[in-house]
Amino acid sequence: MALQIVEMESSGVTVLELAGRVTLGEESNQLRKKIKEILAQGKKRLVLDLGKVSYIDSAGLGTLVAGYTSSQSQGAGMKLANLTKRFREQLNITKLVTVFDVYDSVEGATKSFAA
Fold it and tell me: Where do the domains of the chain lie, and which CATH numbers do they carry?
């Protein structure tokens, strides 16, 4: 299943709801372009809702790291929410869990920007 990205705004935070697979090729390129587009609009608060992501490969992880790095370099924040059990395990194995701010819900991630 191709990657679907739905963009929403909540309390001044941009939420990207991802559904499908984040893999090498069109899907990871699509996500990379969307993150760059949001940062180019001057938006500084970004939450990725990963609850409907069925699979993510190493290229997808690389895209998330690149998005995080880009947001940090532009003074923005990117947080992850609703991770599946499998994806949470991938972040633990790759030690990327120490890089990202991870939340159980979109609401929790959104509220964390106010803190």
Answer: 4-110 (3.30.750.24)
How many CB atoms are closer than 10 A to CB 40?
9
Q: What angle do CA 102, 63, 91 make, to 5 degrees?
A: 40
- pTM (2 d.p.): 0.96
Closest CA to 87 of 111, 115, 54: 54
**Integer CA distances (angstroms), 76 to 1, 46, 51, 63, 81, in order:** 30, 8, 22, 16, 17
Task: State the distance between the two ends of the chain, measured CA to CA, in whole angstroms.
Answer: 37
Place of tokens 């895209």: 63
Q: Each residue of 28-59: pLDDT tens digit?
A: 999 999 999 999 999 999 999 999 999 999 99
C-alpha–C-alpha distance, residues 30 and 16, integer Å: 12
Q: Which amino acid is at 8?
A: M
Specify the long-range contacts of residues 107-110, CB closer than 8 Å, at least 24 apart.
108/81, 109/13, 109/47, 109/79, 109/80, 109/81, 110/10, 110/11, 110/13, 110/15, 110/47
